[in-house]
Structure formats: structure tokens, C-alpha cells
Amino acid sequence: MADTVVRTRKQQSAAHGAPKGVGRLPRAAVHHPWWFALPAIVVFAGFFLVPNLLNFYYPFTNWSSYHADIAFTGLDNFRTIADDGSLLRAIRTTLVYALLAALFQNGFGLVLALLLEDDSRFNRFFRAVFFLPVLISALATGYVFQALLDQDGALNSVLGTDIPWLGSTTWTLVIVTLIHGWKWMGLSMLIYLAGLKGIPGEMLEAAKCDGAGPWRTFWSVRWPMLAPAVTFNVTTALIGSMNTFDIVQATTGGGPAASTEVFNIYMFRIFGQGLYAQASAMSLVLFLVVVAVAIPLVVGLRRREQLL
Amino acid sequence: MTAVWRYGRPSLVVLLAGLAVGVPLWLVAVTSAKPQAEAIEPNLDLPRHWQPSANYADAVSQGEMLRGFLNSLLVVVPSVVLVLLLGAGAAWVFARRKSKLVSAAYALCISGLLLPPAVITIVMELRQLGLAGTRPGMIAVYTGMYLSTSIFFMTGFIRAIPTELEEAARMDGASPSRIFWRIVLPLLRPVIATATIMVMLYAWSDVFYAFFVLGGGDRATLPLNLYQVASAQLYLNNWHLVFAYVVVMSLPMVAVFLVGQRKIVSGITSGAVK
What we know:
Chain A is mostly helical and 308 residues long. Helix content of chain A is 71%, strand content 0%. Chain A is built from 15 helices and no strands. Chain A has helices at 2-14, 27-31, 38-54, 76-83, 86-115, 121-135, 138-149, 154-159, 171-197, 201-209, 214-225, 227-242, 246-251, 263-272, 276-307. Chain B has 2 domains: 2-55, no CATH class; 63-231, Orthogonal Bundle (MetI-like fold), CATH 1.10.3720. Chain B is 77% helix and 0% strand. In chain B, helix 3 (52-62) crosses helix 13 (239-259), helix 8 (164-171) runs antiparallel to helix 9 and helix 10 crosses helix 14. Chains A and B meet through helix 1, helix 2, helix 3, helix 6 and helix 7 of A and helix 1, helix 4, helix 5, helix 6 and helix 7 of B. Chain B: Residues 69-260 form the ABC transmembrane type-1 domain. Chain B: InterPro entries: MetI-like, MetI-like_sf.
């Protein structure tokens, strides 16, 4: 193999127009053969793409733990989840959750990045402190906040109040998204810090010379220059939080009155009841919702980067 | 403005860190040292009666923590290795070859960055393959889920490496596999650190996919064990045990972070903003 490669190169340099490569393979195929990519493609296709394809079939069957066989039943599962209201509720809850979680995660992350921008020892230490929640598992995070926010929990005992923080059908969803933002703010912070560091110093100097104050500098120079970091952070936060499970399960379990029941909580519950096809139907809806959100989002944010 | 900022900023940072991170961590620490009677209504007071060792010993023995730890290692380590190796091989081809087919394969392989894994039908497929409830099944699922991330990061990274090094080695007669092992992989070291920590972050703490694929039982990973311990009726509101468990479970991740802090931080940030 080694000799052939060497010979290939000699031939090319010696005679122009001579047949390229040996064994009629193009040069790229000799130097970067396909089989290096093959294992990754096989595993990815086998355990990611194929399940997603199967997910376009099983929702239309009666697959469950109650039948031995699996028969085609058309839209029955979708009719069931639409009629009992869980479909619309899951879509609405998940979208609200994703929107608020992305907002909090990015808001907290950006504020922290601006506060800890300079490379001092003090700042480096506190960056690590704010990164700690990222390292703690989301399930553990959920339990910590359940202990804090329970009606008999630590927060009420400190404030001397008796507020059911996790018992409101309207506000608990917001509180859970705040916890989600808290858990992931350290990651956003790091990425915003990198974005801030990438802004050329001359640009900030120029803004200063032109008499721009800190606010003006932020809105006219730094914020537009942060566009790639914003794209990455907002996309990962939105998509990641649509797949949320642990934090919700550990704090509310989907309650009260299913007001925090996002897609994955619903699937977990219904799968546990043995209604596999119905869970699969919800999984397909999640897939479609993510695609419907992700494509315009990525396209839009990329375009925004080019405009700014 | 500047004077206010000079003194106001550090105090604001300390205040925020104390409230946002300090209070929850303090709650975990003190509660994990309390007897059950004190921990049942969690608060920020110091324990009146200290019994950390008893709690931690209970969490370790009743929570089957050693088994969980071993199970987590046996699943997460092979997944990380596979994600890195397979990802690096694919990224090398995707970064260096230019054709419509290659770009199509690349686009397909990074689609997992956005698309959610179809967890229900994964179970179906694993059952048919006889891999449901097994570690190889779990490893395959994690690898499939995180390959997109590693391929994406690594392809971007390899594209930025000049090809001269590879060409020089080729002139010296090195085969593609030798070039891959001796030149490409070592050059990928910074991005390998990033990918490792990202996959660890998700896989080490995952309960959702572990629940569907592994279920409970003998092969339960650490977080799955924690979930079972915390939701079993017997242990409900046993915050002292839950938090002792949380502390022990989080230590490996914190240790990994402390050891590789600088690399991790620069890795996460350099990969993202491009």
C-alpha cells in the first residue's frame, strides 16, 4: 500500500496527463478511504436513524403490552391523544418550557459572562463556581430544588412563608424552567465568554474614542459581535430543553394536574402503562415539533449573523 | 460609573454565587449530615446531631452505590471511547474529501445534533436484536446519540489543520491507518477533551434513556439507582440519604472537571463559536 502511494505521486509529478492514481481509484479514496467513516455511519444509522424511521410506522399500530401481535390501526393512537387533550397540552407545555428555559439559560449566562469577562484569578474562580451546576446531574438538581421549594422545604422556612412553589398550575412551569436555566447557565456563560474574547480590542477602543458609553458599546458593538455565540447557545438551549425529562420528573413529576407534563414525561408515563404505540405517537409528534422549530431557527439565526 | 463598577462588580459576583450556587450546595451538604428526623423538613440549619458517616454508609449500601458506579463506568466509558474513535474516523474522511456524496453523508451524520432520539422505537429495535436491557444495547444507543456531536466538532477542527503534516507522512510511505493513528488522532487531542466532557456530562447523568433501555434491576446506572431509591415509597422524603447519594454521585464529574479544567473550558469554547 505504502509503495503504491509513493509511486502515484511520482507518476503525477513526472508525467502530466498520465492516468491518475493506481488501480483507478481517485487520490482521495486512497488517502482517506471510506472505511474510516463506515463504522460511525453504521452505528449512527443503526441506532439513531433506523429508530427514527421506525417511529413513522409504529404510531399507526396497536403495539402494546396487551397484544401478542402488532396490527395496523391507522390514526387511532393520534385520535386518542388528541381527544383526551394530552396532545395539545404536551405541545403547549413543551414549547413554553423550551422558550422560557432558553431565555433564562441565555439571560443568566450572558449576565455572568459580562460580569466575569476579564481574565483575573477572582473571575476564573467564580466561573468555575457557576459551572458547578452543569456538572451535577439534572436528576440530582431536581431533587435539590424539590427540597428547597417544597411546601415544607428550605425556602419557606427561611422566608417564614407557606407558599406551594411547586403546586401552582400556572407558575410551577415557570419555576421549573428557572431551575433548568440555573442548571445550564454555566455552559452558556463559557460560550458567551469565548464570544466576548473574540471581539477585537481595536473595535472596542474605536467605540470608546467615538465617545460610546458602556451601554452604547454593548448594544452597538459587543451584542452584534456575539451573534455566533447567540446562535449556538439559543439553538442548543431550545432543542435541548424540548428533550427535557430529569429536572421535571424530579421536581414535579409532570404535576400539578399535568401542568408541567412535557413530551418526555408523557412518554415515560404512557410507556410505563404498556401503551407503546401511543407513546411512540407522542414521540413522532415531538420529532415533528423539533424539526418545525429547529429548521427556521437555524436558518433565521444564520441569516441574522450575516446581516449584523 | 467606573468606581461603582470596580467595587460593585466583585460584591455582586460574590452575592450571586452565594445565593444561586452556595445556598443549594449548602442545603445538600448539611442535609446529608442530618438524622432522618431533622432532614424530613429540609432547611438550611446546621445539623443538631451530626451523622454524616452513617448517612453516607447507608446511601452506599442501601442505594447499591458500588454496583451502580460500576454499571455506569461499564456503560459510559465504552460509549465515550466509541464516540471518539468512530467520530474521529468519520470526521477525517468528511473533512478531507470533497464530493456531493461526502457532504450528504456528513449532513446525515450531524442530523443528530438537532433531531431527538426516537426512544420508544429504540426499545423496539433493541428487543428484536436481543439487546434490550443489556450493556451493549445501552452503549450502542449512547454512541448513536452522541456521534453527531463529536463528528461535528471534530470535522470543524480537522478542516482547520493544514494538510502538510499528513502529506509529509504520506511521502514517507505511511499508510492511511498509520497516518490516522500517528498524526490525526494526536492532533485531535484538544477536541477529544471537549467531546469527552460533553458526552460524559450527558451520559453520566442520564436517566431517561437508561430507564428505557436498561430498566431497573442489576444493570441500573448510578442516576437510575438514585431515581429508584428516591422514588421508592420506603425512602420517600429521606432527604438525608438522597443528598448523601447526590454528593457521592457528583464527585467523579467534579473531579474530572477540576483535573482538566483549563482544557475543558478552552475546548468547549473553541469548538462552539465557529
